[in-house]
Amino acid sequence: MSNHQVQTVSTSSDKIKVFAAVFAIIAGVVAFYFLADQSTPVRASALVAGLLLAVGAAWTSQPGRDFLGFAKESVREVKKVVWPSRKEATQITAIVFGFVLLMALFLWGTDKVLEVVLYNVILGWK
User: Fold this and answer.
1) How far, in Å, CA of 25 to CA of 23, rounded?
2) Distances, alpha carbon 53 to alpha carbons 19, 46, 68, 69, 116, in Å
3) Are 61 and 8 a contacting pair, CB within 8 Å?
4) How confident is the model at residue 68 (pLDDT cuts 50, 70, 90)?
5) For residue 28, what is the enclosing H or E element?
6) Could you give the CA distance from residue 126 to residue 123 in angstroms, rounded to a whole number?
7) Do residues 82 and 68 lie in contact, with contact meaning Cβ atoms separated by under 8 Å?
8) pLDDT of 76-119, one tens digit each?
9) What Rg do the C-alpha atoms of the chain give, in angstroms?
10) pLDDT band with cut points at 50, 70 and 90 for residue 14
């Protein structure tokens, strides 16, 4: 078993850049709602400007570069997935619905049997 320790070091400038990115996103959203009386393109441009500033600030920080690497690796892994064909997906969906229906009927039947046993046989209420 490997006993390697991973040490993450984050400089204060990286923390400031991440804080600036979060602040830019919040400022863009606030500007979008603050400019409610303006036209939609103006509001959307304020939101997009905030997002672009956030991406720019995050891009230059080490956590931003790490996230970008993670996103690229995720896309690469998703491309390796073998997705089912339409016929296979339809068959699997039909099997799931059939099983759910069968379980619903079983649970309903079990509930009714327990109801009869409890109320009629044991308690004699009905």
Assistant:
1) 5
2) 12, 11, 16, 20, 67
3) no
4) confident
5) helix 12-34
6) 9
7) no
8) 999 999 989 999 999 999 999 999 999 999 999 999 999 999 98
9) 28
10) confident
